[in-house]
Amino acid sequence: MFNLDSLVRPNIRAMKPYSSARDEFQGEAHVMLDANENSLGSAGPERFNRYPDPVQRAVKAELAPLKGVRPEQIFLGNGSDEAIDLLVRLTCTPGQDSILILPPTYGMYEVAANLNDVRIERLPLTEDFQLSSETVAGVVASEAKLVFLCSPNNPTGNLLHAEAIEQILRGFRGLVVVDEAYADFAAAPSWTTRLEEFPNLVILQTFSKAWGLAGLRLGMAFASPEIVGYLNKIKPPYNVSEATQQHALQALRDAARFEGMRQQLLRGRDWLAERLPAVPIVETVFPSDANFLLVRFRPDATAVYDFLVSRGIIVRNRTTQPGCAGTLRLTVGSPQENEQLLEALQQFE
Ligand SMILES: *Cc1c(COP(=O)(O)O)cnc(C)c1O
């Protein structure tokens, strides 16, 4: 039933991708005069005079065994935000097609759609931020080219029920994009474990959260080799810099640090989740599988937000998001930051 070629925009199917110098010749040569680079070297302390590998082979070779996928099932981008934009552009003809989102959710899906003149269909999550059976049926019936399922969801922190996602994977005709930016903090297995079963599945992950590399800008998409091939066809030729590729390789070889930070952030989440309910202005602490907690405050979350700002503590005000009235999103910080946050909330008046 799922047919990738009929989902991809006709102009993208037909187009010939840019062929870079590094596409046409790979490997080491004595004299490299094919790319108008500067053979003398680089300004600044390090050498970056050569264009990077356009398809990041070394990083993918290191990442594939870690994620339990094949290198040809990996797309790397300038943050997962690049993958979000490319997925919209791959499938949606501007002024004609639509994407489907389930609010409250991550804001970049909407921005990518608006930027590309793509319509947005919305089916809301339930009060406890899950997919009702009506919503699943609505997704399956939709003509949208792709649906974004954020799990664990931002800003709510919860995993979406796996059975609902599976029903969508089996019934929806477009691409099913499961955004797992927070998967490293979640108690459930990643959907990468189900990649071989679903040709319409795309999983997004990122180096920006548990890896602690938000400033590097490196995002991952896992999908069939056919989908990855299309994303590579339409991406800017050198979308991941040499500096980023080198740094990512070093990070991947520092798994102990990653695991240590991950565990510490999970302990910080538990520490906050245990103490916040005792704070008088806290009404609800929503369960979280991410590195943040969505918290409902009474009587006035924005007053709490302003009070925290006055104390030099910045959190995310989510009060205007659908289903999120009265809430702030609190990122789990260092132990000291968590203590400062709790102390400030206890002193609110
Ligand atoms: C933080 C986040 C991302 C990460 O975006 P990058 O561009 O990789 O930094 C993606 N999706 C969601 C839902 C996020 O919260």
TrEMBL record:
Its cofactor is pyridoxal 5'-phosphate. PROSITE patterns: AA_TRANSFER_CLASS_2. It catalyses: L-histidinol phosphate + 2-oxoglutarate = 3-(imidazol-4-yl)-2-oxopropyl phosphate + L-glutamate. Its EC number is 2.6.1.9. It comes from the Bacteria. Signal peptide: none annotated. The modification N6-(pyridoxal phosphate)lysine is found at residue 209. Keywords: Amino-acid biosynthesis, Aminotransferase, Histidine biosynthesis, Pyridoxal phosphate, Transferase. One of its GO terms (biological process) is L-histidine biosynthetic process. PANTHER family: HISTIDINOL-PHOSPHATE AMINOTRANSFERASE, HISTIDINOL-PHOSPHATE AMINOTRANSFERASE-RELATED. This is Histidinol-phosphate aminotransferase. It comes from Hymenobacter luteus. The gene is hisC.
